[in-house]
Amino acid sequence: MPLPPTVLRRRVRIRLRGIVQGVGFRPFVHNLAWELKLGGYVLNSSAGLVAEVEGDPAALERFIQAVTQQPPPLAWVQEAECSELDALGEESFAIRPSATATGEFALISPDVATCADCRGDVADLAGRRFGYPFTNCTNCGPRYTIIRDIPYDRPKTTMAGFAMCAACRAEYEDPRNRRFHAQPNACPECGPTLWGGPPGLPLEQARLRLTAGEILAIKGLGGFHLACDARNESAVRRLRERKRRSDKPFALMARDLAAIAEVCEVSDADRAALTSPRSPIVILPRKAEAALPEAIAPGNRTIGIMLPYTPLHHLLFADAPYGLLVMTSGNLSEEPIVVSNGEAQQRLAGVADWFLLHNRDIYMRVDDSVVRTFEGAERVLRRSRGYAPLTMDLGRAVPELLACGGELKNALCLTKGRHAILSQHIGDLENYETLVFFEETLANLKRLFRVEPHAVAYDLHPLYLSTRYALDIPNLPKVGVQHHHAHIASCMAENGLSGQVIGVAFDGSGYGPDGAIWGGEFLVAGYAGFERRAHLRYIPLAGGDAAVREPWRAALGYLVDSGAGAFACQFVPEERVRIVRRMIEKGVNTVRTSSCGRLFDAVAAIVGLRQAVTFEGQAAIELEMAAQDGVAKRYPFEIEGDGPWQLDFRPVIECIVRETAAGVPQGVISAKFHNTLADAIVETCRRIRGETKLARVCLSGGTFQNMRLLTTAAPALRAAGFQVVLHAKVPPNDGGIALGQAAIAAELLK
Ligand code: ZN
Ligand code: ZN
Ligand code: FE
User: Fold this and answer.
1) Which residues, 6 or more positions from 155, have their beta carbon under 8 angstroms from its beta carbon?
2) Counting ligands in written order, which one lies closest to the CA of residue 187?
3) Per-residue confidence (pLDDT) for residue 567, from 0 to 100
4) pLDDT digits (tens, 9 = 90+) for 384-403
5) How far is the CA of 335 from the centre of ligand 3 (A)?
6) What does the pLDDT read at residue 103?
7) Counting ligands in written order, which one lies closest to the CA of residue 132?
């Protein structure tokens, strides 16, 4: 049959950018074209997805509409570009091999939790993937953790060494199949396997050993986990001892939502977060009646919990007697998460009783992400698996940059075009292993996104490893960024703000240009710069790192500052107090600080909650947890000086000392203290608004992980007529610093 005259046909080229690879986009386009009887082709390029389509103009319109408006579930079309071509008379539609163009890049999908269809396959007794721990499809499975380079095709992943069997190959090549071009497609015949026999055997072993109270090292998606039965008190305690993990809470994995509801309160927003394809750890309020070992999260009223997100996890729970497992990162104290079998057997030998290993390599280390919900929205606290390497839109194209981030909870950030590419959580840059992880991540992201930085942004703290790394890079312009300016810029960039805001940056510490340690800061800030309008009054803090480990030193600083007589601290030997007091008076190893974290420390120490901590923020968390509900009272404080104003909390501290001596309960004091701090935030912002007319307030910094403070301060600010801007996709803690540094450097280099 002759073709209709070409005037009745139209041909267009469509280029799509965004998350369009590894999410089933090509089969979607292919099937759509067949349905609409359109000819042409589709392919992955390193820039995204390219299709040429021709046929009936009305069908073509419907095609364009569907591709841009109703893409596959995991896809995200950021940009669509359409251009007209001459019709060629092409009637059939094909998927063509990928094309690479130099300098171009496509966005890479994060790892995706096992979908319902694949869970069905794994549970299907008659199916060929029954019990197969590496089942995946176009809608789920490993992505970022296995991709070595783009375009995203099997040879460029750690699945390269597995040749597909005939059955898998047929699925892979059938555009109507759910596994069409699913790069990690595999089955028991041809894919990765567990070590130690047929899939059922090691799994059965693992279940039996977990049930018996053993600690297992389990190879996961982005690294190893250390696991044990969460209800087994002695197993949990043993794990804590062997891991040398201070008192940091362990995360749990639950069989299903019902198992979570047994131990935690779960809101609708929490349920949405738990069951999302990102499958993060969600911080939930623990039910009072939940009988769980104290060693899971000592002194904490919340629990971090997640659902199984790989077939291997689902199989670990299958008909096992336990419904909750501890699933903590497989590492030693503060080192990066372990990814290779050999590394695990070596480093975790003293921790794990047994190893559940497999032969699918993890290319990129990626920890579990941590979120909590607030005001109905998910708020990311640790941005890693399921989120990285999703990019953020900077609103305009900027030069290619590297921002090295901070010291604790480090993540780095690259920019490319309009994209800010924030890395996964790297960790505390305090040891060589973590620095190596930083370098691995940087090299990988530079390659995947084809970034060659023209400038480097860094924190002003001269001793941060990230700062030293930045300054050691030869031949590139460097941009030093003040820590709290970066916090506020991060909050602005995430929310697409420009202009100026009132920035409240509260955290443990950040280097101040005046040589003091800042951390209770009110800035008037834009990307180009900031003015410090107010801060917590400086107190003397003695002892360097010890001052952070021993909260009573902050208390002593406050007491010396307020001229109070003897520090009636019944919890610390008198002799030590005397020595530190002398250090303060002589200015030996003593810094001045406006840190809000130290203010929390001081209060926690004075009320007798805690004199020494095993991880950053522990005293503040315990003070938050202690706060009683239904207390409306507050303490007096003062705002003084003329520019920058100083928030004088000495009256607060004096009241707390008095009340503690009078036997007022810790819970009441804590609640009143939180109320007071929220008041101080509102009052200071009000004064700044009076001078600047600014009414947008960005809240950032690690202190705003404190839910008690946030739930008091945010509504109070709104009631006072402010627009409150919070973090959601980016952590308020130092994990968000690099994004702020990048946004600031981009502005300064304009
Ligand atoms: Zn699936
Ligand atoms: Zn196969
Ligand atoms: Fe900070």
Assistant:
1) none
2) 2
3) 59
4) 999 999 999 999 999 999 99
5) 21
6) 64
7) 2
Q: Helices 666-692 and 596-606, interaxial angle, to 10°? A: 160
| Residue 704 pLDDT | 98
* Contact assessment for residue 77 and residue 18, using Cβ atoms and an 8 Å cutoff: yes
Ligand at minimal distance from the CA of 142 is 1
Q: 607: CA distance to ligand 3 center in Å?
A: 26
Per-residue pLDDT, averaged over 519-538, amounts to 98
For 344, the token pair is 């695990």
Helix (H) / strand (E) element for 676: namely: helix 666-692
Ligand 1 centroid vs 179 CA: distance in angstroms?
8
- Which listed ligand is nearest to 137 at the C-alpha? 1
User: For the chain, percent helix, then strand, then coil, each to nearest 5?
Assistant: 35, 25, 45
Query: What are 672-696's pLDDT values in tens digits?
Result: 999 999 999 999 999 999 999 999 9
- Closest ligand to C-alpha of residue 521 is 3
From the CA of 314, which ligand is nearest?
1
Phi, psi of 537 (to 5 degrees): -60, 140
* Ligand index nearest the alpha carbon of residue 517: 3
Q: Indicate whether 168 pLDDT > 90.
A: yes
Print burial letters for 712-750: b (CB count within 10 Å at least 16), e (below 16). bbbebbeebebebbbbbbbbbbbbbbbbbbbbbbbbeee
698 alpha carbon – ligand 3 mean position (Å) = 14
Distance CA 150, CA 475 (A): 28
Q: Quote the ligand 1 centre to 120 CA distance (angstroms).
A: 9
Q: Which of 225-234, 536-545, 669-678 has the weakest average pLDDT?
A: 536-545
- At 100-124, the pLDDT tens digits run 666 667 788 899 999 999 999 999 9
Residues 45 and 99: beta-carbon distance below 8 Å? yes
Pairing mode, strands 324-329 and 302-306: unpaired
Under a CB-based contact definition with an 8 Å cutoff, are residues 39 and 51 in contact? no
pLDDT at 198: 76
State pTM to two decimals.
Answer: 0.93
336 preceded by a cis bond (ω within 30 of 0): no
Give distance in angstroms: CA of 135 to centre of ligand 2: 10
- Ligand 2: centre distance to CA 121 (Å): 14
- The span from the CA of 100 to the CA of 300, in Å, is 51
What's the CA-to-centroid distance between 119 and ligand 1, angstroms?
7
Cα of 578 to ligand 2 centre, how many Å?
A: 72
CB atoms inside a 10 Å sphere around CB 707: 18
- The ligand minimizing its distance to the Cα of 178 is 1
**Which two three-digit tokens encode residue 516?**
């003091």
Structure tokens at 470: 């930045």
Listed in sequence order, the residues at least 6 apart from 278 whose beta carbon sits closer than 8 Å to its beta carbon are: 110, 112, 113, 369, 385, 386, 387
Give the pLDDT score at 598: 97
Environment class of residue 662 by beta-carbon count within 10 Å: exposed (0-12), middle (13-18) or buried (19+)? exposed
Closest ligand to the CA of 188? 2
